[in-house]
Amino acid sequence: MSFGPIRRTGWRGMRQLHRRCLRQPVFRTLAGSVVLCDSHLARRALVDVDGQLDHVPAFWRPGGVALPPAVCGALNRWVHRTLAAEDPDALAAITVDQLGAARGDLHRACLHAVTEANSGPLGLDREAELRATVSEFLDTVFHSMLTGSRRRADHGAFQRLAARAGTTLATSAPPGFPELDPAVRGEVYLRAVTAFVGASSAALTWLLCALQSPDLVAARRAADPTATRTEAAPEHIALETLRLWPPAWQHRRVVLHDHRIGPLSVLRGDDVVVPAYALQRHPRYWPDADTFDPDRWSRLPSRPEAFLPFAVGPGSCVGAAFEVRWLAAVAKHLAAAAPIAMTRRGTAPCVTAVFSAPEHTLGAG
Ligand code: HEM
User: Fold this and answer.
1) How far apart are CA 117 and CA 309, in angstroms?
2) Entry's Gene3D superfamilies (predicted)?
3) CB of 248 sitting under 6 A from ligand 1
4) Which of 34, 257, 271, 324 has the lowest tally of Cβ within 10 angstroms?
C-alpha cells in the first residue's frame, strides 16, 4: 500500500531537486521522470486539454489503489457539498482552541485539532466507534505516513481500520455520505478523513512554525518579523505559508500518449512531475523567493501562475478555496490567542508524499 508517490526522497532529495530546477527548468531525471519547473508548461500539462495524461490524483490514495471514477466522483461531490455548508472561521476557532490545550508531538496535535474541528462533517460527534477508528487511523497509519517514521505504510492496519469503519458506516454514516458498495465504503471514508484532515494538518504545522517559532525552516523572515503576526492580512499569511511550504510538494501524472512538452519528448508511461515546492520558490517568479513576506501578496495582481499548491485541472483539489479561507482564519485566531510554546526536536522537515514541518514538542516553555 502507498499513500501516493511516496518515494523515499527525504529532505535531502527534495533540496537536490530544487537546486536542479534552479539551473534547468525542464529536464528528465535519471529515473525517467519529466520535471516541469516552468509555470506555463506546468499549468498547461496539468490542465491537459488534449487528454495526454492520466488524471487519477495520486496524492491522496490511502488504499494505494485507484477507486472507480464513479466512486471518486461520489466522494468529491459529498466533500464539495459538505464544505459548502461549513464555516471556515468557526472550524478555525475550534482548531486554535484545541491547539492551545495540546501538549507533546506537534504532528499528532495538529492532526487531532483538525479532526476535532471537522468532527461534524465526518460524523464523529454522533458515533463513538467511528471516532475511535479515526483516532487509531490518524495515530498509527497516518502519523507514520506524515512523519516518515515507518519505512512502509502498514497495509494490514489500514485494511483492518477500513473494514471497521465500513461496518460502523452501515448503520451510522455522516450526513449525506454516499451510498456505496460495502467493499469500498470504509476505504472511501478513510480517504475522506485523509482529505479533510491530512494536508490541512501539514499546512497547520508550517503555519505554527511561521507564526510561533523564532527561526523559520528553509526560509528567512522579512525585515520586521513582528509585522507578520500582527499586521499582515491573514489571507496573505495563509498564501505565503502555502507558497513556501506546500504540503503537496510535487504533482505527478502518468503520460497516456507520446507527445512533446516544451523541449522534451515524453513517452507513454513516463511520469510528469510538477515540483510545486521548487516552482513556488523560483527567483524567476518570486523576488526574494526564500523570504517569508506575506505582504508580497498585496503587490500581486491576482493568483500568480507559479502558485500551484493544490494542482490545477482535472484531479486537482476540491477543497482548495475552503482551505485558504480556513488557514487564513487560523492565522487570525492564532494572532489573537496566547502564543503556543514549541520546541524543535528535528532539524529536517518531514518529506514523504506530504511535506510537513520538522518534529516539535508543544507546550514546553
Ligand atoms: C493545504 C491543504 C491541502 C492541500 C495542499 C491539498 C492538495 C491537494 C492536491 C494537490 C490534490 C490533487 C492531487 C493530485 O493532483 O495528484 C488534492 C485532491 C483532493 N483534495 Fe485537497 N488539499 C488540501 C486540503 C483539502 C481539503 C481541506 C479538502 C476537503 C475537505 C480536500 C479534498 C480533496 C479531495 C476530495 C481531492 C481528490 C480530488 C479527486 O479525487 O478528484 N483537500 N488535494
Assistant:
1) 22
2) Cytochrome P450
3) yes
4) 257
